[in-house]
Amino acid sequence: MNEENSKRIWTYMQEAGDKLVGKLPPSWQHPKGRNPYAHVAICVKGHFGQSYKDIPDEKLQEVLDYIDYLAENPS
Asked: Which residue range is the domain that position 46 belongs to?
């Protein structure tokens, strides 16, 4: 991913994390609460099989749509 798109996705991921603050269900693995920013980053990496920086530019809209999905469907 080029630098401009990488920055755009990072900002979008942060905004999604902001929307998820306090909305993620509790987990026994996170007794002090879940980190919504880490949740978004881990989900993106798991879904696409690589870090957001390594995803091809052609998938930019697909990544943004997936991040929207995560923000709308806390899990």
From this structure: 3-72
- Residue showing tokens 């997936």: 66
Task: Decide if 64 contacts 12 (C-beta within 8 A).
Answer: yes
Work out how many domains the chain is built from and give that number. 1
pLDDT tens digits for range 35-71:
999 999 999 999 999 999 999 999 999 999 999 999 9
* Spatial distance between the Cα atoms of 53 and 51, rounded to a whole number of angstroms: 5
d(CA 57, CA 4): 10
pTM: 0.92
Query: Residues with Cβ < 8 Å from 37, sequence gap 6 or more?
Result: 13, 14, 17
